[in-house]
Amino acid sequence: MEPALNVGADHHQNTAAEPLLAVILGPTASGKTELSLALAEKFAGEIVNCDSVALYREFDIGTAKPSLAERARAPHHLFDYVAPTQDVTAGEYARQARQVLAEIRSRRHLPIVVGGTGLYLRALLDGLFRGPERSEDLRERLRERAANRGSGYLHNLLRRLDGVAAGRVHPNDVPKLIRAIEVCLTSRQKMSELWEQGRDPLRGFRILRLGLDPERAVLYERINERAGRMFEGGLIDETKKLMEKYGASARPLVSLGYKQAAQYLRGELTREQALGAAQQAHRNYAKRQMTWFRKEPEVFWFKGFGNEEQTQREAARRVETSLSRIGSETG
Predict the structure, then answer these.
(1) Which residue has the higher pLDDT, 71 or 133?
(2) Which residues of 29-50 are buried (b: 16+ CB within 10 A; e: fewer)?
(3) 45 has which bridge partners?
(4) Taking 60 as the threshold, does the pLDDT of residue 5 lie above it?
(5) N or C: which end of the chain has fewer CB within 10 A?
(6) Where do the domains of the chain lie, and which CATH numbers do they carry?
(7) What is the arrangement of strands in the sheet containing 110-114, beginning at the earlier edge strand?
(8) Hey, which residues does 76 pair with through a beta bridge?
(9) 85-126 pLDDT, tens per residue?
(10) What predicted TM-score, i.e. pTM, was given to this entire model?
(11) Spatial separation of the C-alpha atoms in residues 17 and 179, rounded to whole Å
(12) pLDDT of residue 128
């Protein structure tokens, strides 16, 4: 089956001398890890994480990170390197990931970016506006205001500073509200005006986007099964230990799975309710991911899962074609 090609208007033309960068995108539980491993083994690839929660140390069961055995099959980057109490913005991730890509390029290996966090992927490939560096003192004060007065206070503050930006940020999204206020106060400019000043797209690579778009009903079954395995495999115990160690300061405790496990531990939900809520939250997230990824330019979409032989074979053929084209143009 020939995968569908979605061509977007924002595609950046690359020169013939640029090496290939493979990007595997798709919803949660679609098999991105399995496909990345198959391609890495076939093409001497190195895998670069693009999942915002998999960056964090000590958060393992609920993140579906590659196992130690899987990581032994190919070099992996940007997993388990952030402390649970730290924040990592999309811009910070992009800077770190671009450095890793440059190092992989220097080794003449194939970089394979894998993950489902759309904003991080966009920051890496297309760049974000050039906002100011973070101010941890200001962020901490804003977190205290949010804790004492609620997220509505931050949203009202942002509305006074930048009405356009406030219209684009959900009133309950505290991290984004804090970043937007931080940008306005430290740069003395409106965040919405900085958005209009252009971006800094990734250069030096020819990008091949490979998208997984399995049949929705089957995907939801896999999502439900995986959430069930997480709960059976110790997610609640892991969440309990993290809550005892870090309290509310651990950023990923509000992420999918961990949030529902924490609600169970606080007595807000029964175990069965927590599992059902986690399954529903993951299904909703998969919908949002596909809505986001559909806007990515030039994606070769495959209708199967990443662990299926046919999908792996078709994806490998796409990589081979791209590598051959680059070789013929530079030879």
Answers:
(1) 71
(2) bbbbbbbbbbbbeebebbbbbb
(3) 110
(4) no
(5) C
(6) 4-128+200-330 (3.40.50.300), 136-195 (1.10.20.140)
(7) 4-6, 299-302, 206-212, 20-25, 110-114, 45-49, 76-77
(8) 47
(9) 998 988 899 999 999 999 999 999 999 999 899 999 999 999
(10) 0.79
(11) 38
(12) 78
Residues facing residue 20 across a β-bridge: 206
Confidence category of residue 197, pLDDT binned at 50, 70, 90: low
**Number of Cβ atoms within 10 Å of the Cβ of 226:** 17
DSSP-based three-state secondary structure for 301: strand
CA dist 125 and 200 (Å) reads 9
The answer to whether residue 199 scores a pLDDT higher than 90 is no
**Radius of gyration from C-alpha coordinates of the chain:** 20
Give me the mean pLDDT over the 179-186 stretch: 89
Greater confidence (222 vs 135) lies with: 222
72 burial via Cβ count (<10 Å: 0-12, 13-18, 19+)? exposed
Q: What letter represents residue 285's amino acid? A: Y
Distance CA 77, CA 96 (A): 10
What values do phi and psi take at 130, rounded to 5? -85, 80
Write the single-letter amino acid at 303.
K
Alpha carbons within 13 A on the beta-carbon side of 133: 3
What pLDDT score does 302 carry?
A: 97
| CA dist., res. 79 & res. 279, Å (int) | 24
